[in-house]
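User: Can you recover a sequence for this backbone? Please restate the input before giving your answer.

Assistant: Of course. Working from this structure:
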């Protein structure tokens, strides 16, 4: 089984989780004041968010400083300014804001802070990880896995993935499952691999749903059940994973785990092909379908895309009548 590659994940900028990131050595935060800025940002009023957060940041509040940094970094409510973003991240990190430490570390990893500095990034991530901040633990694990050219230490990588996974971070749960499946930093154990991937899949992580579905389909570390395995693959396919879409096309064509349906097979093959997953075997089989069957498959593709688009659109606000 080929697993997805490991990659860095940023903290959830402008989210409540980011603003509530722990501040090392402090038990207080100007949360009541920052709540106005965060609420404005979540409503899309970034100019108001900037106005509310700015005086708090100038007064030295680390959460407000981290917030200002994200506004400058993303050009929200203010002209995008990487130097100002770095300035505020550094001030917030200097005051122990774990989210700012992760943000600054990632900028040092990819060079957006002016130059790459993996040692400084490691120190920032370690400090934030030791404070119990799960995104820091996960990204530190990725560094020890050799990301960005950092010296690999699979045992430390597994230790930090486990700490983040035990806090419920789905990417860490998935990556810990991959380490168990491959025997890196931990003894190879497909039962443990299946357990952690199931946790990540249950949280909607498409890569985890794909790999867990394959494990269930094959009976690797878990009880073999082609029907349930196909259901997990379908979860990943519906989330847009092109590998899962390709697998579902094969399953529908063969009638394994699902009822045989050549039109549904054609639909998933068309979607996978659009995503860059070309399969000549499937193309040859689908070319033998009738014109009506191919037209029905194309209709199902359009319907699938329409449902995906509807899920991505913001909710329609109810219209206000006269007087409110």
């Amino acid at each position: 089984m080929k697993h997805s590659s490991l990659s860095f994940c940023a903290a959830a900028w402008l989210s409540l989780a980011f603003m509530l990131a722990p501040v090392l050595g402090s038990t207080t935060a100007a949360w009541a004041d920052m709540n106005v800025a965060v609420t404005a940002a979540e409503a899309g009023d970034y100019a108001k968010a900037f106005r509310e957060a700015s005086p708090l940041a100038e007064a030295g509040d680390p959460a407000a400083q981290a917030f200002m940094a994200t506004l400058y970094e993303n050009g929200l409510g203010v002209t995008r300014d990487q130097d100002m973003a770095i300035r505020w991240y550094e001030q917030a990190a200097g005051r122990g804001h774990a989210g700012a430490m992760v943000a600054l570390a990632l900028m040092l990893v990819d060079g957006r802070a002016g130059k790459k500095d993996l040692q400084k990034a490691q120190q920032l991530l370690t400090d934030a990880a030791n404070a119990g901040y799960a995104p820091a633990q996960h990204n530190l694990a990725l560094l020890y896995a050799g990301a960005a050219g950092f010296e690999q230490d699979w045992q430390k990588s597994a230790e930090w993935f486990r700490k983040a996974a035990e806090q419920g971070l789905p990417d860490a749960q998935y990556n810990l499952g991959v380490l168990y499946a491959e025997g890196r930093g931990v003894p190879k154990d497909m039962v443990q691999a299946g357990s952690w991937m199931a946790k990540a899949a249950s949280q909607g992580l498409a890569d985890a749903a794909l790999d867990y579905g394959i494990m269930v389909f094959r009976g690797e570390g878990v009880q073999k059940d082609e029907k349930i395995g196909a259901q997990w693959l379908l979860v990943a396919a519906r989330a847009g994973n092109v590998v899962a879409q390709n697998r579902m096309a094969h399953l529908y064509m063969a009638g394994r785990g699902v009822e045989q349906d050549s039109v549904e097979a054609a639909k998933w093959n068309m979607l996978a092909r659009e995503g860059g997953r070309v399969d000549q075997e499937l193309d040859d089989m689908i070319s033998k379908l009738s014109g009506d069957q191919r037209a029905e498959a194309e209709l199902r593709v359009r319907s699938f895309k329409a449902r995906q688009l509807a899920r991505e659109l913001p909710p329609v606000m109810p219209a206000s009548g006269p007087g409110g």
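That completes the design. The radius of gyration is 23 Å.
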